Fold each of these.
Amino acid sequence: MTDLRFDGRTVLVTGGAGGFGSATCRSFGDRGANVVVADLNLEKAQEVAADIPSALAIRMDVTDPESIQAGIQSAVDSFGGLDVLVNNAGAPNRSGPLEETSVKDMDWLYQINYRSTVIATQAALPHLRASEIGNVVNVASISAKRPRPGHAVYCSLKAGVEALTRATAVELAPEIRVNSVSPVIAETGFVKNAMGSDKIPDDVRASMVAGIPMGRTADTQDVANAIVYLASDLASFQTGVCLDVDGGRSI
Ligand SMILES: NC(=O)c1ccc[n+]([C@@H]2O[C@H](COP(=O)([O-])OP(=O)(O)OC[C@H]3O[C@@H](n4cnc5c(N)ncnc54)[C@H](O)[C@@H]3O)[C@@H](O)[C@H]2O)c1
C-alpha cells in the first residue's frame, strides 16, 4: 500500500537504538525511508542503522539543546531535508517514590522526557515546514492517564507531552501534523532502568497484565506500527491525536 510508504522521505528517531526506537527505525526503513538513528549510545545506533538500507547513525544527547540542534542539522546535511521527527527518547524515575525524588532527578526527568520534545520540535521546524508532509510523532505513556505509584514526576511529564502534542498540533497546522502514542509497559531497556533488572519479576508482571484487557504487555512492534501509521499519508487528516497503544489498559 503506497500510503504506508516513505520512499524519499527522511525520518529522525530520538532514542533510536532502544526498544521502541529501534523497532520504529526498522519499520520506517522497511517502508523506504532514509532513517536517522539518533541516540546517546552511538555504538548501538550504528548496529540498528546497519540493518536499514538508507540510514545514518548519530550520537545525540536529548538533554543537551546543542546536541539536538547538531543532530538535526546532520540529518538534513546527509539526506537533504527532514520530513518526520519521532520524539521517542525518554526515561523513568531513577530514584523511586515521591519523597525520595531529588531536585536533580526532577530536573533530569524534565529534560529527557519533556524539554527534549520541545527543543527537537523547535529545531526541526524550518525543515518540517519545507517538507510536503511535515510530521511529528511524540512518545508519551499510558501512565499519563493511568499512573502507578512511584513514578509521579515521570507520569506527569508524559501528561505534559500529550498536552504539548495537542497544543503544537493547533499551532503548527495545517503545514505540520503532530500526534503522539501512549504505550503501556513493554519489556525494553526502560524496564531495566525503572526496576533495576532486565526482566519484570513474574508476580509484578502478573499484576500489571491483570490490568490490561488484552492480557499481555506491549511489544516494541505494536508501538512502531502506531508511530508509522500516524506519520503516514493514511493519517493525513489526523493531528493532535494521542493514540493509546495499551491493550485496553486505559479503559
Ligand atoms: N517501555 C515501556 O514500558 C514504556 C512505556 C511507555 C512509554 N515509554 C516511553 O517510550 C520511549 C522509549 O522507551 P523504550 O521503552 O524504548 O526504552 P529503552 O531504554 O529501550 O530506549 C531508550 C533509548 O534512549 C536512549 N537514550 C537515553 N538517554 C538519552 C539521551 N539523553 N539522549 C538520547 N538518547 C538517549 C537510550 O540509549 C536508549 O537507546 C521513552 O520515551 C519511554 O518513556 C516506555
Amino acid sequence: MNRYRPEQRSAYYRVSGRETEKHRKAARQQKRKDKIVFYGVSAAIICLLVFICGFTCADRYRSGQEQTVERADASAWNLRLVNASHPIPESYPIDLTVLKNGQSVDSRIYRDLQDMMDAARSEGLSPLICSSYRTAEKQRSLYEAKVVSCMGQAGSREEAEKQAAVWVAPPGTSEHELGLAVDIVAESYQLLDKGQEETPEQKWLMEHCSEYGFILRYPSDKSDMTGISYEPWHYRYVGKEAAEEIMRQGICLEEYVQM
Ligand SMILES: [Zn+2]
C-alpha cells in the first residue's frame, strides 16, 4: 500500500509551479503576438482609408476643375456675358427667328421660349413679350432717350449717362442685341416697374423659367454685380443646366461664369 510521503508532495508542487510559470510565459508571448497583429491590421486599414480618400478627393478636385472649366467658358453662345465691361463683339453673328407678334429672337432659343410661353398660357396666364432682339441702333435710341430724361436731375451729360446706364444699357452692352433676352410682362399689367413682380405671370415665370433655360437676369440683390437695377421682366436664355444652377443658387450670370 502506498503511503503518502511529504517529499513527494513538495516535488509535485515544484513541477506544478514550473508548469504555471510556463503557461504565464506562453500567455504573455501570445498577448504580445496579438498586440502586434492588432496594430498591424489597424495600420493597414488606416493606410487603405487614406489611400481611398486621397483618390476620391483627387477625383473630386479633378471633376471640380472640369466643371469650372466648363462653366467658365463664357464664350459659349448661351453663356456669353454682356454688360458694361463685356461689350458685344463688332461682328457678332446672329440668326433670327421672327415671333408671331413681330418680335425676333436668336433662332436657337425659339423652341424653349415658345414652350415656356405655351406652358404659362396653359396655366391660364397671359404673358406678353414686349421686347426681344434689338439692333444697336434701336438700343442707341432707347439709351439716348433715357439720357435726355435724366438730364433734368443730373448736372451734366456725363452724370446723365451714368444714371441712364443703370436703367438702359448703352449700345453694344445690351443682351437684347444678342437676341437671347426677352422682356415679358403680364397682359393685364404692362408697366416696366417693380409692380410687375406681383403679377401672377411674373410669379409663374420666376418659378418656372429655369425649366426652359431662362433666368431672371437682373435680380433685386445683384445690381452691384450686374450694373443694372432690378428688372422683374427681363429674362435671359442661358440653357437649362446653367439656368437651373443659377436660379437654385440665387446667383447672377456674372457669378456663374466666374465660378
Ligand atoms: Zn430687357
